[in-house]
Amino acid sequence: MYKKGMLIFAVIMTLSGCGKPKDSVEGKIEKLLSQMTLQEKIGQMNQLTGLGLAEDMQNQIKSGKVGSILNETDAKTINELQRIAVKESRLGIPLIFGRDVIHGFKTIFPIPLGQAASWNPQIAENGARIAALEASSVGIRWTFAPMVDISRDPRWGRIAESCGEDPYLTSIMGAAMVKGFQGNKLSDATSIASCAKHFAGYGASESGKDYNTTWIPELQLRDVYLPSFKAAADAGAASFMCSFNDINGVPSSGNELLNQQILRKEWKFDGVLVSDWASIEQMITHGVCSNLKDAAQKALKAGVDMDMMGFAYTGNLNELVKSGAVSEKQIDASVRNILRLKFRLGLFDNPYVKESETSPFYTVDALAKAKQAAVEGSVLLKNTNNVLPISSDIKSVAVIGPLSDSPTDQLGTWIFDGDASHSVTPLAAIRSTFGNQVKIIAEKGLTYSRDNNSEGISKAVSAARQADVVLYFAGEEAILSGEAHCRADISMPGKQTELLAALKQTGKPVVTIIMAGRPLTIEKEVEMSDAVLYAFHGGTMAGPALADLLFGKAVPSGKLPVTFPRMVGQIPIYYAHKMTGRPAKDAVMMNDIPVGAGQTSLGNTSYHLDAGDKPLFPFGFGLSYSTFQYSPVKISSNEISKNESFTVECNITNTGKYEAAEVAQFYIRDLVATLARPVRELKGFQKISLKPGESKAVKFEISSNELGFWHQDNTYSAEPGEFQAWISKDSQSGDPKTFSLK
Ligand code: BGC
């Protein structure tokens, strides 16, 4: 029997970690930690970029000065470096090898924005799983993905890496990626640790310029920018990464509110928080630290466990502990997190990668899944007179445009390891799959998207003249999006619009397929085209996916994960905006103002004279070759009590001629609250497949708690009152049903 004193002793031991059963992970961590010198602890907190087998690197590993290596991708080298860590360093702590495996390692899936356009979490999970299988085969056990930054600015190059503008959609897709990367068990040799990044608010950078300042009131941070990170943590994300930006003046790598208060205290996150590349050091450039020592101290205090290529920790923590400026306890807390990740990955038991004889890359399964992702991630924006799918009466097509046959560009940004020689381009796929059915006349017209040389246009026009339909592949080269690849003007680059105008002049039906890393301002191009298919950068299998969609072997089912502005001046533009006190009504456009109108009132409402108040295409928008009818929405009760769940449902009927998938979107609006609330908020979605004439019920269950929001006193709750609910095909259509929360 326990005596009271013994019980208290046991409690103290357990709380301090000393009472952990020795064979539990926590017990093993404590045991190892107790044997580590301060220098070895600091070594674990140091992440270096791969230098292959450079002597300097080997020596540092041997003396326990490195905890992790990024960007080493050769299995032999990885094993050799690991051998040095395990066999030649004093404590034999294995290294963890990391890499940016963002939308594929070798087999490249669509950019994350394109995957989000599928509104199918299985697509994202598949992509991450294939990436994990491929990357782990060379010894990479940690990826710096998913990026779950809410991105409402298409000028920002990194919007390509995001799941778009919405907290709910990003939460679901991000969590699916975490699941795919990490598999069923992190210790499985094919699982790789995921990293939710960039914590936080990076997507709010002013003017969409990378690394720029962000101003985010805490309410908005919690309502909009943090839920996707919380969802990633709840899905078991093994690590988080800081962001480069300052948030309300405090850079993320020194941000105690984010990293200590929210991540550790509120969310109880026990994974690794890694800095971004030299982001600790960059606190000096931000102007909040006077030197590297100061930066190391601030980052440690903020709970940043690992310094990615910043050399702040290795050079300064020792002295900071000695001088009493930081305590060894703070260092221990970080080292525990790092060791925990290594134990969870099973690296202490299986530190090496099996060097396989057979290539695990570009398997039939991987390519099929990548193709399906590109099919589901393409969004049909316009289809006048059902020009698509190309009918069997069509005898010839002209394949035009700089993106029609550009193996590298279709892969998009962040493809360190993807090999463009495996890309199947639209031209190649149309030739191989439909070459027997139609005559193909190929003429690029422009050699690359920014090409300003119009010499090729006349050849493209004569190709168009010889064909029944023109397939025009335009957009952006991969280099125009991604990190530090931001644009102030997001219109179609080069002479692409001029080429489209010339193609249109031929009188032939023109189908424009846009491959890009972001929403482009394409109002003119949409007008000039008979059909528009927005494909983002679709990856290795973009070509076969697009060929199937164009020729009707597959039916488009993607929906926009982000609002498309008409013009750049509308940014920020997103569906979940507030009502304002003077919402737009009967907007008088600039060209309609009578000459000499003087200072006449135009209604005094909220809109731009030259753009109106509507986007070009709203969030959630996407057409199909079929059509769908939604029945009126039913709610399980018109009066919901607090802490109660309720259901919202409707029937969807395929009223068209094609078997097709539809994404039913469930939105709510809080009509009166103590704070102005968005005009709509996505709370659920379902992608269902329907045969022609078939109807299915879609039902969403939601708890009253999910109707809530953050209040000024930093509490979250749902307020009683009237709400509206929609189940609709996009964020702007549908009839709402009103209900109340008691
Ligand atoms: C990016 C991160 C990336 C890291 C490592 C940084 O520049 O912001 O997203 O994971 O580099 O490559």
Descriptive report:
- By secondary structure, the chain is α/β, with parallel strands linked by helices.
- It is built from 21 helices and 27 strands.
- The strands form 7 sheets. It has a 6-stranded mixed beta sheet, sandwiched between helices. It has a 5-stranded parallel beta sheet with strand order 4-3-2-1-10. Strands 19-27-26-21-22 form a 5-stranded mixed beta sheet.
- It is globular, with a radius of gyration of 27 Å.
- The protein binds beta-D-glucopyranose.
The unique ligands bound to this protein are: beta-D-glucopyranose
Number of helices: 21
* Residues in helices, as a percent range: 25-40%
Report the uncertain regions. 1-18
Strand neighbour order, sheet with most strands? 11-16-15-14-12-13
Q: Please tell me the overall pLDDT.
A: 96
Strand content: 15-25%
Q: Compute the number of strand runs.
A: 27
Distance between the termini: 51 Å
Largest sheet: 6 strands, mixed
Give the helix/strand class: alpha/beta
Radius of gyration: 27 Å
Oligomer: single chain
- Overall 3D shape: globular
